[in-house]
Write a structure and sequence with these properties.
This protein is mostly helical. It has 12 helices and 3 strands. It comes from Microctonus hyperodae.
């Protein structure tokens, strides 16, 4: 039986900060696009002004690397075209079609790549709502990989609360073999009390990864 987290910590997406500039009207306007993204499965056209306003990565890309290029074509090989379309929809409209667990695992790396912090936080909230004894170890690894401090802290507390059940799960054994430093961190965190645990939380809040 799965043990779901019953903690309702910042689950309201209204509390998640969003960028203030609205580009909804541009989203369906394909006549004034000035950049083309090329994928194995097709192309996507977009507007630099929207991308630069919402993503510091795109801002740097278009103000420096693209300044001397005439074709304004960018090849994307590490993100599926469907995921990139969803990222663009978020950039233009501040909305996401779905944040189910399968979708989130694809969106999160892209949100991190383009430094879309509000979307990254939304993904973290969605992942937290789905935490169970079976997936807690994977969740902690994911939180550490993408430096999601609040999700790290919540997941550590959850693991400590359900330690005996979680450590018996096959997923925990796999995590110990692949990420021994994270497993060690769990053991240490479980034994900590008071000020020492607060120090660990302080470091994680400043996005200090376990490894």
């Amino acid at each position: 039986m799965s043990v779901m987290s019953n903690k309702n910590i910042n689950s309201n997406t209204d509390s998640v900060p969003t960028e203030s500039i609205d580009f909804k009207e541009l989203f369906n306007d394909k006549t004034s696009t000035d950049v083309t993204f090329i994928f194995v499965g097709g192309i996507i056209k977009a507007h630099k002004v929207a991308l630069m306003a919402r993503s510091p990565v795109f801002k740097e890309m278009f103000t420096q690397k693209m300044a001397n290029q005439q074709n304004n074509e960018i090849k994307i090989s590490d993100i599926d075209i469907e995921v990139f379309e969803e990222i663009l929809k978020y950039i233009y409209t501040d909305n996401i079609s779905s944040l189910d667990k399968n979708h989130v695992t694809k969106l999160l790396p892209a949100a991190c790549k383009y430094k879309l912090d509000a979307l990254k936080q939304m993904c973290g909230e969605s992942i937290w709502k789905e935490i169970t004894v079976e997936n807690a170890s994977r969740t902690l690894v994911m939180a550490n990989t993408y430096k999601m401090a609040q999700l790290q802290i919540r997941t550590l507390h959850f693991i400590c609360e359900h330690f005996d059940e979680i450590t018996k799960a096959l997923s925990y054994e796999r995590m110990k073999n692949r990420h021994p430093k994270i497993a060690m961190m769990i053991e240490i965190f479980k034994q900590m009390k008071g000020g020492k645990r607060k120090l660990v939380i302080y470091l994680m809040e400043r996005r200090v990864a376990f490894e």
